[in-house]
UniProtKB/TrEMBL annotation:
<feature type="region of interest" description="Disordered">
    <location>
        <begin position="1"/>
        <end position="26"/>
    </location>
</feature>
<feature type="transmembrane region" description="Helical">
    <location>
        <begin position="434"/>
        <end position="458"/>
    </location>
</feature>
<feature type="transmembrane region" description="Helical">
    <location>
        <begin position="379"/>
        <end position="404"/>
    </location>
</feature>
<dbReference type="GO" id="GO:0016758">
    <property type="term" value="F:hexosyltransferase activity"/>
</dbReference>
<feature type="transmembrane region" description="Helical">
    <location>
        <begin position="479"/>
        <end position="501"/>
    </location>
</feature>
<feature type="transmembrane region" description="Helical">
    <location>
        <begin position="530"/>
        <end position="552"/>
    </location>
</feature>
<dbReference type="Pfam" id="PF13632">
    <property type="entry name" value="Glyco_trans_2_3"/>
</dbReference>
<dbReference type="InterPro" id="IPR050321">
    <property type="entry name" value="Glycosyltr_2/OpgH_subfam"/>
</dbReference>
<keyword id="KW-0472">Membrane</keyword>
<dbReference type="InterPro" id="IPR001173">
    <property type="entry name" value="Glyco_trans_2-like"/>
</dbReference>
<keyword id="KW-0808">Transferase</keyword>
<keyword id="KW-0997">Cell inner membrane</keyword>
<protein>
    <recommendedName>
        <fullName>Glucans biosynthesis glucosyltransferase H</fullName>
    </recommendedName>
</protein>
<dbReference type="InterPro" id="IPR029044">
    <property type="entry name" value="Nucleotide-diphossugar_trans"/>
</dbReference>
<dbReference type="GO" id="GO:0005886">
    <property type="term" value="C:plasma membrane"/>
</dbReference>
<comment type="pathway">
    <text>Glycan metabolism; osmoregulated periplasmic glucan (OPG) biosynthesis.</text>
</comment>
<feature type="transmembrane region" description="Helical">
    <location>
        <begin position="34"/>
        <end position="55"/>
    </location>
</feature>
């Protein structure tokens, strides 16, 4: 189940060290960054001046200065994306067809396809691995190998995973071997999982392509990534731009429609200004193993989580370290055939976002600790940080605006201060200018949606598969949904930032990928959002009905959060929308071959059953059959006892006269320790089975 080890050293990097001298840094297209930055600064400066003139009709008070500051910070974040998207629109509208690769080209190098999994659905994982392995075995025999790298730590999931892997290995193609390794000790989470592969087998391969648990990639895309790496020995990483597929709920369909229509525009803009200093999103990318090993070993931060410990959002840092070491990091925005699934519901998105938020806020430490990091990579990190800090900043902006309104409504104005003045200080604003500024802000905010509509109407792919009417209806539907759920996500992200800043660790929970929550869970998850919406609405009506109407898009979304969460997370409504042709994407009209291949294979794994621990102990054949799956390497410090393993064996002896099944007497860590050690499982079986089986 595992090939002979071919170790490749992967030293931990010191973020404070200067950049290595042995490689010439790739060219940085600074004028492109300057163009985007200056464009964003110019628009922000103009709008900030207009806001100042709105507020400065009379003498500015502290709350107005706070409002002006928050407005300028939030607008700078929006305008940067607006300018980048504007450039992206020009690029996608002027694109020329990509030339086809040479017909006779075949890989000269060896590439490992990695599937890191953590308590995932084994039927889906094995169907994906089987589809990829068989396709590559036919297209490029001997050039690829697939590795399922499991960090699974739940006994039931582990045993189902083993049953699926045994079935997968039974049909393994000769031209693309499939290997399986499950770690006992999940050090450093996903980044540690990948690092373990590099340290044990990295020298046997030139490249690795990392899949996520819900990734799909076309065979031609995999081959083209390898071809580009072989043609450019100075490139360390090439990141594709995955499209979302497989959405069944209204929320997932809305997300995948937005990604399919707006994603190419936003991706083109980022790829243009990033140039040779692109980013890495953790999956659907190819990485040069020698470059990754020499320069991307991640250190742990001192202290405890949430800011200390392993780096959670490791991908951004790995890209920065590759670039720091002189390797190019590219975003292949012209390369299609890369897909993934999105979260099925608002709750699933917020659970995932909580972990991402912690990882991105950790990057604050990286910015201060790392020397010689390219400014473009610092910009990538700041964009990631701001994507979460923007939420509490918007909440503060709403709060300050409401405080100003409450002050004007209920507090007696101080018409004359302590100094002598002939004219009173009226707390007034320029309403006409404020309305004009509001229109400009909304135009900047919603411009990417208009850009997407233009792109869809211009592009034959959308015109011929979806059509102008359904495209326009989809943009309107997605806009309405995004406006309604934006306040819910605003509250959730603000709460995540607050929790992290107060020292709460997100932990490491497996991602829920199928949706479907009961009302009790939904009400518990969105309770504080409803409460905040009710408080904002009450305060707004206390000011005036007009103010309440102005705040309604935010407050109504908050108060209806449970209902919106339930409806948008419904597969039935999602199916109805699909049948009605709402939120249709080209990838639904013409299903990618990689997605169809997995869908066809998945049922054969879904019907497999696996024994529990007691059933395994009672069945010698099952134990012998799975023995090859178990990785005997436990990376423990010298003279260290793995306590769960020792207690599991001891309990098997001490409690052997109990009538209770052994797996009911052991906790998950103890059961996993037995499952991950063939000898220990035999010892425990011998001790327990004497009187129980």
């Amino acid at each position: 189940m595992r090939p002979p080890e071919a170790p490749l050293a992967m030293p931990k990097q010191r973020l404070g060290d200067a950049a290595p001298r042995h490689r010439t840094p790739p060219r940085s297209l600074r004028w492109r960054k300057a163009a985007v930055g200056l464009g964003a600064i110019g628009i922000t400066a103009f709008a900030t001046r207009e806001m100042y003139l709105v507020l400065a009709v009379a003498e500015m008070i502290p709350l107005e200065w706070a409002l002006l500051s928050l407005f300028s910070i939030n607008l700078a974040w929006i305008t940067f994306g607006f300018v980048s998207a504007t450039i992206g629109l020009v690029l996608v509208l002027t694109d020329r067809p990509r030339p086809s690769p040479p017909a006779q080209w075949r890989p000269r190098t060896k590439t490992a396809i990695l599937f890191p999994v953590y308590n995932e659905d084994p039927a889906h994982i094995c169907a994906t691995v089987e589809a990829v392995a068989h396709a590559l075995s036919t297209s490029a025999p001997g050039a690829f190998a697939c590795f399922v790298l499991a960090d699974t730590n739940r006994p039931g999931a582990a045993l189902r995973e083993e049953a699926a892997l045994l079935a997968l290995k039974a049909g393994e193609p000769t031209g693309c071997p499939i290997y399986y390794r499950r770690r006992t000790l999940n050090h450093e989470r996903k980044s540690g999982n990948i690092e373990d592969f590099v340290r044990r087998w990295g020298a046997a391969f030139d490249h690795m392509i990392v899949f996520d648990a819900d990734s799909y990639m076309e065979t031609d895309t995999l081959l083209e990534l390898v071809r580009r790496m072989e043609a450019a020995p100075d490139v360390g990483l090439i990141q594709t731009i995955p499209q979302l597929v497989g959405g069944r709920t209204v929320f997932a369909r809305s997300q995948q429609f937005a990604a399919a229509l707006y994603g190419p525009i936003l991706g083109a803009g980022v790829a243009w200004w990033a140039g040779n200093e692109g980013n890495y999103w953790g999956h659907n990318a190819i990485i040069r193993l020698s470059a990754f090993a020499e320069s991307a070993g991640l250190p742990a931060f001192p202290g405890t989580p949430p800011f200390g410990g392993p780096i959670l959002s490791h991908d951004f840092i790995e890209a920065a370290l590759l670039r720091k070491a002189g390797w190019k990091v590219l975003i292949a925005r012209d390369l299609g055939g890369s897909y993934e699934e999105g979260p099925p519901s608002i709750i699933d998105l917020t659970i995932r976002d909580r972990r991402w938020c912690q990882g991105n806020l950790q990057h604050l430490s990286v910015l201060f600790r790392t020397r010689s990091m390219a400014w473009t990579n610092r910009l990538h990190l700041m964009i990631g940080i701001m994507s979460y800090l923007a939420a509490p900043l918007w909440m503060l902006l709403i709060g300050v605006g409401m405080a100003l309104s409450l002050q004007a409504q209920f507090l007696r104005p101080e018409y004359f201060g302590n100094d002598i003045s002939l004219f009173p200080r009226w707390p007034i604003i320029d309403s006409a200018r404020a309305l004009s500024l509001f229109g400009i802000t909304m135009a900047i905010l919603f411009a990417p949606k208009l850009y997407g509509l233009i792109y869809g109407l211009w592009t034959p792919l959308w015109r011929n598969t979806v059509g102008p009417l359904r495209l326009t209806a989809g943009v309107l539907a997605e806009t309405v949904i995004s406006v309604l759920i934006a306040p819910i996500l605003l509250v959730a992200q603000s709460a995540s930032v607050l929790a992290i800043l107060t020292g709460q660790d997100s932990g490491w929970s497996p991602q829920h990928r199928r949706g479907g929550y009961a009302w009790g869970t939904i009400l518990r998850r969105h309770g504080r959002t409803v409460l905040l919406g009710a408080l904002l609405t009450t305060a707004a009506f206390a000011i005036s009905p007009i103010f309440a109407a102005w705040l309604a898009p935010a407050s109504i979304g908050m108060m209806l959060a449970p209902l919106l969460s339930k409806l948008t997370g419904s597969s039935a409504l999602g199916g109805a929308a699909q049948r009605a042709g709402i939120l249709i994407t080209p990838y639904e009209r013409d299903v990618p071959a990689s997605v169809a291949a997995v869908t066809a294979r998945e049922p054969s794994y879904a019907v497999l059953t696996a024994p529990d621990l007691n059933g395994l102990m009672a069945d010698r054949y099952s134990r012998d059959q799975r023995a090859g799956l178990v990785d005997s390497l436990w990376i423990l410090p010298p003279r260290t006892v793995h306590v769960p393993l020792a207690t599991a064996i001891a309990k098997a002896e001490w409690l052997k006269d109990s009538e209770t099944p052994l797996d009911d007497l052991l906790d998950d860590t103890e059961i996993m320790a037995l499952l991950n050690d063939v000898t220990a499982l035999e010892v425990a079986t011998a001790r327990w089975c004497g009187s129980n089986l």
